[in-house]
Amino acid sequence: MKTDTSGARVVRYAEAPLPTNRGDVRVVVYRETSDGRAIESKEHVAVVIGRPEHGTSPVLVRAHSECLTSEVLGSLKCDCREQLDAALDRMVDEGEGVLLYLRQEGRGIGLGNKIRAYKLQADGADTIEANHQLGFETDLRTYDVAAGMLHDLGIARVRLMTNNPEKIQGLEEFGIQVERREPIEIEANEHSADYLQTKKRQMGHFLDRFMTD
Ligand SMILES: [Zn+2]
Asked: What is the 3-state secondary structure (H, E, C) of 105-167?
């Protein structure tokens, strides 16, 4: 087992080539560690397209947080699945990239609490108010795991596909150089418009398409 050299708390646990509907990729599974031991329940996935570790230019990267409701159940309350698809499509188009699939459902509060928050939203709260009513901060995600995975993959300079300024700052704090931000915008639908507006107004996301409010 290879230990990450950056000091971040992940170890490379497994990897294999994987044929997908977009072509062949490499899947690398990382486990978070605690006191030097790998934790089975805290696994994260890097989807590696092409051979980005061998290039000299910054690598196209997306750090994507898992979203069961959108990606598996087809929820229209957020645009996670569309963002995931758009990121992978772009990487396949360019022939190279790394998608970090981070297991931190519901901005880190977990699936059960996310669904509790959805109940509060169904009763009228916005996405941030709902989290606060459940006693959570706005966003619990941290970026040391993502940075640790990139360091392990031999990637230090990236073009980051994100609308979230905190992700750029978060990765840079852990030694990843974000040389450019690549915007990733999905059209809102009637269910996700409020959620996207909240992200833009209260969380500082770059969502130019929603500048008309
Ligand atoms: Zn989502």
From this structure: HHHHCCHHHHHHHHHHHHCCCCHHHHHHHCCCCCCCCCCHHHHHHHHHCCCCEEEEECCCHHH
Domain boundaries, the chain: 2-104+141-204
- State in Å: Cα 87 to ligand 1 middle: 15
Give distance in angstroms: CA of 78 to centre of ligand 1: 5
Output the CA 181–ligand 1 centroid distance in Å: 21
Three-state secondary-structure class, residue 172: helix
Q: What residues are annotated to the active site? A: 139, 141
Nearest of 42, 33, 61, 25 to residue 167 by alpha carbon: 61
pTM of the model: 0.83
**Mean pLDDT in each 10-residue stretch from start to end of the chain (213 residues)?**
53 97 97 83 93 89 95 93 95 96 83 90 86 72 87 96 90 94 80 74 64 32
| Span from the CA of 100 to the centroid of ligand 1 (angstroms) | 15
Residue 1 C-alpha to ligand 1 middle, in angstroms? 32
Q: What CATH homologous superfamily does 2-104+141-204 map to? A: GTP cyclohydrolase II (3.40.50.10990)
- The protein residues having their C-beta less than 5 angstroms from ligand 1 (an ion) are 67, 70, 78, 80
